[in-house]
Design a protein that fits this description.
mainly alpha; 4 strands; single chain; 20 helices
Length: about 375
């Protein structure tokens, strides 16, 4: 699959170069261009001039300037881009304003593919130009939306993630750029990063002045409060603080009777606390909703093994392995359970296969060492 770089590099097909005669030169304002610097032109512009009957024998300086801008946007790694930047600033000290104006004009006049190249050019000409950077992020977001609309989700996600990164650059450069916080709130919300979304929107409430947008943000914060609480809870559990995590999650349980992810995280919290029967109840509820949930089968097997219910534990590990045969951790868990019932043959099969799949994992190594220890004592 193409990445963003390749997407923009394809735009270079719309560029043609004028090669100066050896030892000749041209001047753009007071900048001397030697013969070793090719002068780019945008093919579509030339075609339009021909169609409109405005093409002349002499190439306009403005056409070369536009070609340089377009080239930087399409391929910022092109070997002459730094020289093009010098030429642009010599041509017009306010060239950045011109690029932003034309880029936005093209987007607003349904020439989106050209417009995004111009905005990308401004980004690479001066990444400290925050209005340029902000509008480039907006264009990336719009491109992502268009790709999602035609079900090109992989490419759409690449553009959306890049848009998020550029918005983040904006607030890193200027912590008071309110609209970037507004946009990032939606980006984080859509990627289910509710805590980060909340932080962005709370910052926007501090900085924003648009009454309509402020009301919109407050409504969003209120509607996703439970999602924020859930994220806070599972982060606490995953970081080894199950007591505090369960305090966050348990109040949500009666409100969301079919949210299996919630039950899974509660079960994980109970397991960390050694409350195995309570954890078993939660994981069984998960499997009522999603019978093939591999992680729940594995966690259920662990809890059953901890309370000595080895037969059911092996059964659930086996179901999980059938669904995910390359998961060496689950195979290790079943192997160690076989060890508990002194089934050395099956334990050896599982643990050795897990070790072959990943001989650098600490748990796998520990399981193999325990197996060898027990075999040596037999």
């Amino acid at each position: 699959m193409k990445g963003l770089r390749e997407y923009f590099l394809d735009k270079t097909e719309n560029i043609s170069f004028i090669e100066l005669k050896p030892n000749s030169m041209v001047f753009i304002k007071d900048y001397k261009i030697e013969s070793d610097i090719p002068l780019p032109l945008i093919i579509d512009e030339l075609i339009n001039e021909i169609k409109e009957g405005t093409a002349k024998d002499e190439v306009k300086v403005s056409a070369i300037i536009n070609g340089m801008i377009y080239t930087i946007g399409a391929d910022p790694d092109f070997k002459h881009c730094e020289q093009y930047k010098d030429i642009l600033y010599h041509y017009d000290e306010k060239i950045e304003e011109y690029i932003l104006y034309i880029g936005l004009k093209k987007i607003n006049e349904n020439a989106f593919e050209e417009g995004i190249v111009w905005l990308r050019a401004l980004y690479y000409i001066n990444d400290k130009n925050l209005m340029g950077k902000y509008n480039y992020a907006l264009a990336l977001e719009e491109k992502a939306r268009r790709l999602f609309a035609i079900s090109n989700n992989k490419m759409g996600n690449l553009f959306l993630n890049r848009s998020t990164n550029v918005f983040e650059e904006v607030i890193n450069e200027n912590p008071n750029f309110d609209l970037a916080y507004y946009k990032l709130g939606y980006h984080y919300k859509n990627s289910q990063q509710y805590v980060k979304s909340s932080l962005m929107w709370k910052k926007y409430i501090q900085l924003g002045k648009d009454t309509e947008l402020l009301d919109e943000v407050r409504d969003n914060l209120e509607s996703m409060q439970d999602d924020i609480t859930y994220e806070e809870g599972y982060n606490l559990i995953l970081s080894g603080n199950p007591n505090e995590g369960l305090k966050k999650l348990l109040p949500l349980k009666d409100k969301y009777v079919d949210w299996w992810n919630l039950f899974f995280m509660i079960g994980l919290g109970y397991r960390q606390l050694g409350m195995y029967q309570e954890a078993i109840d939660e994981f069984e509820t998960v499997l009522d909703f999603v019978p093939d949930q591999v992680e729940a089968l594995n966690e259920l097997g662990l809890c059953q093994a901890f309370i000595g219910n080895y037969s059911d534990a092996i059964s659930n590990f086996t179901k999980a392995i059938e669904l995910k045969p390359k998961d060496y951790e689950i195979r290790c868990n079943r192997g160690m359970t076989y060890l508990q019932i002194n089934d050395i043959e099956n334990a050896e099969k599982d643990i050795n296969e897990a070790y072959e799949q990943c001989d650098t994992d600490e748990i796998t190594i520990a399981c193999k060492q325990e197996l060898e220890k027990i075999k040596s004592m037999a």
